[in-house]
Amino acid sequence: MSGSSEHAAHAPDAPNARAPGALAGLRVIDLSRVLAGPLCTQMLADQGASVIKVEPPGGDETRMLGPPVNADGDAAYFTAVNRGKRAIGLDLSRAEGRDVLLRLLEDADVLVENFIPGTMAKWGLDYETDLKARFPQLIYCAISGFGEDGPLGGLPGYDAILQAMCGLMSVNGDAASGPTRIGIPIVDHLTGYTAQAGILLALYHRARTGRGQRVEATLYDTALSLLVPHAANWMHTQRTPGLLGSAHPNIAPYDRYTCRDGDIFLGIVNDRQFRKFCDYIGLAPLLEDERFATNRQRLEHRDALRTAIDEALAHRARDTVCHDLMQLGVPVGPVHTVPEAFEHAHTRHRGMRIDRDGYHGIGAATRLSDAPVRLRRLPPAYAQHTDEVLREAGLGDTHIAALRELGVLPRRPPSKP
């Protein structure tokens, strides 16, 4: 399954489909593992950056987080966030390995790492002390759980733990379930996007000043930033947000409802939409009821409103309701399973499902009209490109062989469970 591919990630008839990506020529050294860092660098690769994934002797942990696995024995989880990259194995705990990294940084624009804070400094690779003067144009992106300092500084961070600590679980779930983890690693995901945004901001700043800088993204900050509108509501009222299930704390009706053959989510955000909904669904009398005249009043009487809507939808067909209301401009959608979402015709139309040469993945969510996203390389096997990358960095075959003999360049794939 490993190797390179020049297939378009989006529809083949997209304009300028063979044009270079927006980040073509950008060189990225990716020291990160698991999700937030690899997702960040995959997004850079999707936009044309040359990304070299540097893995320790044990490999990126996500290679082992299966089944399911691909033909190389790597978990599907790993393939989801590592396409478009070349991979080398390198033992950075060895001085010789760190020397190789410094060679790679000589023509690099960006370094991304998500080690426990202090690890790079321990290796003599601290940005301020060791790298900034040597590589003044380098953009150094550090991703961590809590940052370097403060009461929690330097501690390891994991998505679900941050969901718990930062209040996300406290507003997710209902009375029956209690506080519940959001079903995707949303903190890791958004931290990857936050890191990407920081890198792009630093690149813009470098274009104006000629100077690189350190970019920081933490899971802690990211998790807190997700608490909109719950944190703002609390700051203004001092009332602790609680569990509302699928409902919204500030809008009604904005919730999951059950039709005859499946669930829908109804998201009405203004009075005009509410009038259209009531006229369609046979609830016109609600429009004359002062309890439901405005969103504020509907929030105060959300239980009575819920009962009326439940009764009106119970015998209606899900897809018909969704089609008709959307045509009327009332936001509503079926509650799809993951297969239903990815088998939908619009998913294919938007190029958000990729099936290329044995690779299956999610398409890029950001696209530019004149700089297309393409699947340039399939997710790499462990250390697949070590010799190729090091030759490009100026190391001769004798030097490479000597490093391999020392154990600095592991080339055997990590053992699979």
Automatic annotation (TrEMBL):
Annotated GO MF terms: CoA-transferase activity
Family annotation (Pfam families): CoA_transf_3
Classification via SUPFAM superfamilies: CoA-transferase family III (CaiB/BaiF)
Enzyme class, first EC level, given as a word: transferase
InterPro entries, alphabetized: CoA-transferase_III_domain, CoA-Trfase_fam_III, CoA-Trfase_III_dom3_sf, CoA-Trfase_III_dom_1_sf
Keywords assigned by UniProt, alphabetized: Transferase
UniProt EC number: 2.8.3.19
Name of the protein in question: Acetyl-CoA:oxalate CoA-transferase
